[in-house]
Amino acid sequence: MRPERRCLEFMIIVPIKEGENIERALKKFKRKFEKTGALRELRARKNFTKRSVQRRDEIKRAVYRQKLQLED
Question: What distance in Å separates the CA atoms of residue 17 and residue 33, rounded to the nearest whole number?
Fold first, then answer.
């Protein structure tokens, strides 16, 4: 049996103050959307990667980050 796919449903709400510029509100929306990581996840779902490959990439990233921290 397949594990149940998790469904991401979210709604981004950007409160706009009276007289606030629409460009500023759009910038806030874009920033919030980027933080959710929805686009990143969609791109990741486009191509299937095996769990072992994902794990290997995570380890590579962790080693790289650790190396950067040790250099400072």
Answer: 19
* 11: helix, strand or coil: coil
- Answer whether 33's CB lies under 8 Å from 15's CB: no
Residue 1 belongs to a domain: no
Residues 6+ apart with CB under 8 A from 39: 33
Which of the four pLDDT bands, split at 50, 70 and 90, describes residue 11? confident
Say how far apart CA 18 and CA 22 lie, in whole Å. Answer: 11
On whether residue 7 sits in a domain, the answer given is no
User: Domain for residue 34, yes or no?
Assistant: yes
pTM comes to 0.53
Name 36's Cβ contacts closer than 8 Å, sequence gap at least 6: 10, 12
